[in-house]
Amino acid sequence: MRNALQIVTDALDELGIPTPSSITSTTDDTEKQCRAILHAGARSFRNLRTFPQLKKKHEITLVSARYQYPLPSDYYAALPDTAWDEDRAWRLMGPLSDGEMTSRVLGLTGGSTNRIGYRVFGPDINPASTGGQFKVEPTPTASGGVLSFEYIIRSMFVKSDYTTYYELLNADTDYCLFDDDLMTAEFKWRYLRAKKKDYEQELADAKTLLDAAVARWQGTFIGSLTGGGTQRRYSVPDGGWSF
Questions:
Q1: Which of 62, 90, 121, 211 could link 85 by a cystine bridge, Cβ 3.0 to 4.6 Å?
Q2: Whether the Cβ atoms of residue 60 and residue 147 lie closer than 8 Å to each other
Q3: Quick one: DSSP state of residue 215?
Q4: pTM value?
């Protein structure tokens, strides 16, 4: 596994460009640019919300009369259809639109259902706050129920001993949470673009590696044309099959 500095070094060596001894300087322009390009590549992969190594589960223990709870401190984005009322094995209703939530809270039928709905709302991102952005309805009347959801973490790098995760690079020896070859290829075309050089082939190479990088973590699946069993069912492409 290659650390952050080694990824940058590999990319620049392939391009025949002198390599820096570090990429953590706050004053050296070359090091600052290399770090910024590395961050930009990692952010682009995080924004795909696909890589399973960024996925995590969070649980909320309900408190009587409390209707809002903090999101996890490393929260970046929600994973669809993963929010559950675990005690009753019911899928949570939501995320509700603003109109749907206010109708439930303020309308004549507000609080009339025990099926919990939720939305993410407001600027309160302080994990120590008594408030929070995750709002539920109806307001719990008893403590102890457990809600859960899965999400994409904010972090993109991890300390070399795997003890601490960071959103931004902290040391040359940090590891990136994305594949080394993918990050190297991504760095190459972004560096060339920043230097106003032709980067068409390097961009194509990076795109080719992307699907393979995702599949390395997720594996493959066996499908079905009949929909039987537990396999996913294949669908007919637009326009039908072509041979």
A1: 90
A2: yes
A3: H
A4: 0.84
pLDDT value at residue 46: 97
Residues 232 and 221 sit within 8 Å (Cβ to Cβ): yes
Per-residue pLDDT of 131-172, as tens digits, reads 899 999 999 999 999 999 999 999 999 999 999 999 999 999
Token duo for residue 181: 């070859």
Reply yes or no: is the peptide bond before residue 95 cis, omega within 30 of 0: yes
Judged by DSSP in three states, 94 sits in coil
For residues 81-86, average pLDDT: 95
DSSP 53-100: GGEEEEEEE--TT--EEPPPTTEEEEPTT--EETTTTEE-B-SPPHHH
Q: Could you give the CA distance from residue 43 to residue 63 in angstroms, rounded to a whole number?
A: 35
Taking the CB of residue 111, how many other CB atoms lie within 10 A of it?
12
Residues 96-122 have pLDDT tens digits of: 999 999 988 888 665 556 789 999 999
H-type alpha helices, the chain: 4-15, 29-46, 98-106, 180-194, 200-218
Structure tokens at 69: 């709870």
Question: Is 57 within 8 Å of 75 (Cβ atoms)?
Answer: no
Three-state SS at 198? coil
- pLDDT of 171: 98
DSSP-based three-state secondary structure for 240: coil
Return the ∠ at Cα 226 (arms to 224 and 227), rounded to 5°: 70
